[in-house]
Design brief:
Elements (H helix, E strand, L loop, with lengths): L2 H21 L3 H24 L5 H24 L5 H23 L10 H23 L6 H29 L10
């Protein structure tokens, strides 16, 4: 158990606290928890790289913690009307499809290497910014128009683009295309 892994586990523990604060309309606490989670994500990554404390567990746990926080925040924001339901459904569906594709490739004995695409990294960055803006607006009682609507639109477009890019990569992988062999028919 490394220090970065312990920080990541603490970030996982923050998820229910942030969700509970949101459900109780304690936006100041939710925003603070979200910021702490974001800062701790950077800290654990820095420590892992700088002091050579990367681990196999951390390689899986870190993105799970990030995704769990982001999906949870988006679902609650959709539930209480802070984000459009179409965006939340699109985001959750994309993530569910990716998980299903990975599981299916494992079941079919053709596991796919999990590596984030550039469009996926951009999508995650925009989603984090959107969550931070909405929580910040609610915590500080300010409106940052037109930032929120712009981030919502950009997040929707990037979520769909990311889903499409992963689908194409997965289909190529599953058919054997691009792996030095001809696609099977």
């Amino acid at each position: 158990m490394t220090i970065p892994n312990l920080i990541t586990i603490l970030r996982l523990v923050l998820v229910p606290a942030v969700v509970l604060a949101m459900l109780q309309a304690r936006w100041d606490w939710a925003f603070a928890g979200f910021l702490i989670a974001g800062i701790s994500d950077g800290v654990d990554g820095f420590i892992a790289r700088r002091f050579n404390r990367q681990s196999r567990l951390g390689a899986y746990l870190d993105p799970v913690a990030d995704k769990l926080l982001l999906v949870s925040v988006f679902v609650v924001m959709g539930f209480n009307g802070q984000l459009p339901v179409w965006l939340v459904v699109t985001m959750v569906s994309r993530d569910a499809l990716i998980v299903c594709a990975v599981v299916l490739s494992i079941v079919m004995a053709h596991p796919v290497e999990i590596k984030p695409l550039f469009v996926s990294k951009a999508n995650t960055a925009i989603q984090i910014a959107l969550a931070a803006v909405v929580l910040g607006e609610l915590a500080l009682a300010v409106r940052l128009d037109p930032l929120r609507p712009t981030l919502i639109l950009l997040s929707g477009v990037l979520t769909v683009a990311s889903a499409a890019a992963y689908l194409v990569a997965w289909l190529r992988h599953m058919s054997g295309y691009g792996e030095g062999s001809k696609p099977s028919t």
